[in-house]
Amino acid sequence: MEILAGILISTGLIFFLGTTIGLLRFPDFYSRMHAAGKGDTLSTVVILLGCICLISTQGGLSWVLGLKILLIINFIFIGSPTATHAMMDAGNKAGAKPWKKVAE
Amino acid sequence: MPSLPIWQFDVPLLILVVLFAMVALSIRNLMGAAIVFGAYSFMMCLIWAGMGAVDVAFTEAAVGAGVSTVFIVSTIYNTGATMPPSPGGLPFKLFIGVVVTLTGVFLLSALPDFPKWGEPNSPANATVAPYYISNTIADAYVPNIVTTVLADYRGFDTLLETTVVFIACIAIYSILRVDEARSKTEDSGPVDAEPHYDPSDSLIVRQASRFMVPFMQLFALYVIAHGHYSPGGGFQGGVILGASLILVAISFDLKFLLSQWREKQIMLMVAWGVFLYAAVGLGCVFMGGNYLDYGFLNPVLPGELDMARSHGILLVEIGVGITVMFSMIGIHINLASNGHFDRGL
Amino acid sequence: MENLIANFNYVIVVILMMIGLWSMLAQNNLIKKCIGMAIFQTGIILFFISIGAKDNALIPILTEAGDHIYHDPDVAKVANPLTQILMLTAIVVGVATLGVGLALAQKIYREYSSFDEDEILNKQAK
Fold first, then answer.
1. Where are the domains of chain B?
2. What is the CA radius of gyration of chain B?
């Protein structure tokens, strides 16, 4: 179980690394928000799934704690993409233009 | 369970915290400075959790990183001045820099006299804290030592702190509130079924917040009630409740929130929390004991005979939660609408 | 030198306090001054929490050991709760103070249409 938790948390960290690189390297506001919103949510969910695997080794009433972490995953899954949508909407209203590839 | 503190975790976070502080103060765009300040608060919260202060980390995550950032963003957004003009006055800043560096060196010269970090017998850890740690179960049957000391052993401090939050809310009202706008908001009656929000605003944000707000409030009530057995208590629960109302104000319209919670009701409830706290203390005096000595409430409170201190702590935390909740929403409404109470963030 | 490494926390606390102090004195923008005040306050809170930390200590919430009998805590193994409570109060009072500071800044903006200290002083001198 702990090996599975280690694999899941490492995968989540790799997704976070990809998110950060995308946040820095993409040319445009909208594509950066794309990277931040999707990568952020996914890596947080995967890391929390790894935490569920870790605490299941503790025994006792740890299934209650696992249920609580599942609820956290649920709310992050709803809230984080909504926040990304709100930011993109605000950027659209403020007039940010999508990046167009310059014809060489 | 691993024991704290973990130095591999603390040292990079401490260095990051200093970097974030410097960045937050040198960014020219004020909105960016507010967001970096929120990130700085989150880093501090992680450091404190790493040192074993889970209640403090919880409060900082709710208050410092959540509500403080919203306050700063509301202030800046409403005035529209997001970029300061280019700074000047370099000689003055150099002089202040020299003064500040000298002060820092002077403070650091006391470093060899400090006890080693983490030592269990340092003067801060050895005077009255061992009594609190050893006797909290025998006195009050509450496993969370922080809650016991906060509401029982040091109950006076918490009463006056709640009063400070109340005074801050009233002070902000008296600074910012604009008189001629008051007659516009008092007319919306309780049967006003028409939504006040602009329908062209995003449906997704409205529906998501409509889904999340009841769960946030339920969780906040859980945090207040379960503060005896887990990190939590009145402040954290009150701030989460206030944050749920701020979410309603942001995702719908400010007028929508004001049609649900009118201005007079908010002010009344802020006062009710402090009144509940002080009334519990007075009740102890009526039963023949000292002020805020919960042990004397034994004949009045239900339950086993010795649980009066635990129930007294719970009542007091409820009072604190009520005041903090309505203070947060009162401060936000004032800051976001610049006192006019019509448009908001 | 060993002092510096053993007390690294306190060095960071002093650095944070000095950053906050410099910002409150030398920055022209009112909002940056408020943020500097908040940084100063969190630095002080870090100082108090560092004082109360203990080596290999657990959090100050006692756990039960079978049949609701809470184990007798070893005082050297429980993090100091007293400093944490003082800092809980400090955080909440800090956010109240930040709110009042921001309200004052907004009221000043209403009068002078600027957050910049130099411009406000110039307009006042006229």
1. 1-80, 142-183+197-345
2. 23
β-pair partners for C70: C64
Q: Is the pLDDT of residue B274 over 50?
A: yes
CATH code given to domain C2-125: 1.10.287.3510
Provide the token pair at B30. Answer: 């004020």
CA distance to partner chain C, nearest, from residue B297 (Å): 24
Chain A nearest CA to B82, separation (Å): 14
How far is residue B73's CA from residue B261's CA, in Å, rounded to a whole number? 23
pLDDT at B187 over 50: no
List of residues 6+ apart from B199 with CB closer than 8 A: none
Enumerate residues 60 to 89 of chain C having a beta carbon within 8 A of any beta carbon in chain B: 60-64, 70, 72-73, 75-85, 87-89
Where is pLDDT greater, at B76 or B80? Answer: B76
* The residue to which tokens 């947060």 are assigned: B328
Domain range annotation of chain A: 2-93
What is residue A99's predicted lDDT score, i.e. its pLDDT? 75
Mean pLDDT of C16-38: 91
pLDDT band at B304 (very low <50, low <70, confident <90, very high): low
Cβ count near B128 (within 10 Å): 10
Domain boundaries, chain C: 2-125
Burial of B4 (0-12, 13-18, 19+ CB in 10 A): buried
- Round to whole Å and give the CA distance between B144 and B129: 14
> What is the rounded CA–CA span in Å between residue B141 and residue B154?
16
pTM greater than 0.80 (yes/no): yes
* Alpha-carbon gap, residue B327 to C63, rounded angstroms: 34
Q: What is the pLDDT of residue C2?
A: 62
Q: Does B83 touch chain A (CB under 8 A)?
A: no
**Could you say which DSSP state residue B88 is in?**
-
- On average, the pLDDT of chain B sits at 83
Contact criterion met (CB below 8 Å) for B219 and B254: no
Q: What is the pLDDT of residue B65?
A: 87
Longest dimension (CA), chain B: 69
